[in-house]
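Appendix B.2, paired examples.
Example (i):
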Amino acid sequence: MVVEYFMGRKECNTIKELEETLKLRNQNSANEFIISEKEKYYPYLAITVRDDLAVLNYMEEEGCSYIAIGGEKAGVQEGSTLFHTCSETDEMEMDNYYVLRFCDAQIVAKEFFEDMTLPKSVEWDRI
């Protein structure tokens, strides 16, 4: 499994290595992780993180993607949250309906690590 993020790229062969990598943050307490197989681009799981909040996107193949539903179901207040995406300076404001707690994102990442399919531990919208 390969994890790409703002500060580099790391090969993770165990869940423990994945957990340690997902803890990495920049000076804004943010990061974006793209998790995929070593030799393949698809499927991948993208986790955009700020503080203890996260947005999850699953891309099965070109043109087939999903976003995890969070919001009140995940204990996140109504409104929106500003995240950094693609780089440390690019920003996106995300409706909290799609924002989860980071601890839930970790569960999803571990599930994806195990079987590389759409994780079932959260609800998804196809986009």
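Example (ii):
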Amino acid sequence: MAIVPLWTPENTTVLSSVFTVHPGKVVVLWAVGFNKYKFRVENEVATPMQACLHRLIHDFSGSRLPSTKDTAQDCCGWIVDVNHVSSELMADIAVSTMNCLWSLSLCNSVMAVGIPGSYQLELNDATMVGTANVYADLYDIGQVHAPEIFVGG
């Protein structure tokens, strides 16, 4: 499969492109270019730079299907160009387990998401947009044999 960047040169916000995990599939995410700590102003506590995972629930009824960035992938495309989507966002949920956010960082740079749904990452450091990135790759669920990188699975 082709590895796809979730932040493209056209993306100038802390929010990544939306990616979809279809049943029987796993999206493996790799963080690159992350600093140990996010940029901080004077007297602010040092906080690790991270990209937090959000679960999105959209209502696409009455709208056209979203265009995709990687049409060579299975499942009719899985990376959505959010600039061309007309849908109503029903929920945006920061994903966590026992109050621990699912996130990528310099020290935790790989994650596999196998729970079907649409997701988006959010950087906690706007100064790193265009420098840090997360790359996504789509696999069949049986191809990934690394339980330590699975979240929620």
